[in-house]
Amino acid sequence: MAMILCHWSWRWVLSAQLAGTGHAGWYDLLAKPAFTPPPAMFGIAWAVLYAMLGLALAFVWHAFGHPLRTTAIVAFCIQLALNLAWSPVFFGARQLFGGLVLMIAILIAAVVATILFFKVRRTAGWLMVPYLAWLALALYLNAGVWRLNPDAGRINSSGDVEMSIGATK
Predict the structure, then answer these.
(1) pTM, whole model, 2 decimals?
(2) What are the residues facing 155 on neighbouring strands?
């Protein structure tokens, strides 16, 4: 288990670096939809989910000779790359709609990867199911935050809406 967490820790570090710093204050200022989990829940959930994803990938990785092995691994890597891009888009660039579009793509790619994982190793597919559920929640949250905060990209860390030159409040 420790090896899996170490293996996936690069994703957390890289995503955080790409997202930039200072986004926590901005995000805290945004209105959230109902059923938003407490902030501590996100770190715990992602740690467990990445451990499960690592196990799922390991099962497929070791399915030597299976005709869909390579396709499943590529699909997994695509959804992981999309997932890695979400934090910089949503938090770093403060593009809520861009994050929403990306989240839809992540969910679609993860469904494809999960179907392929089921075909290669049933256990690997089942290990992906909680991730799909979490992505569905993330899609709901992203859509809700986007809907509730039309000016979110212009809110600075003090809570003021930044206006462009020539614009009026």
Answers:
(1) 0.81
(2) 161
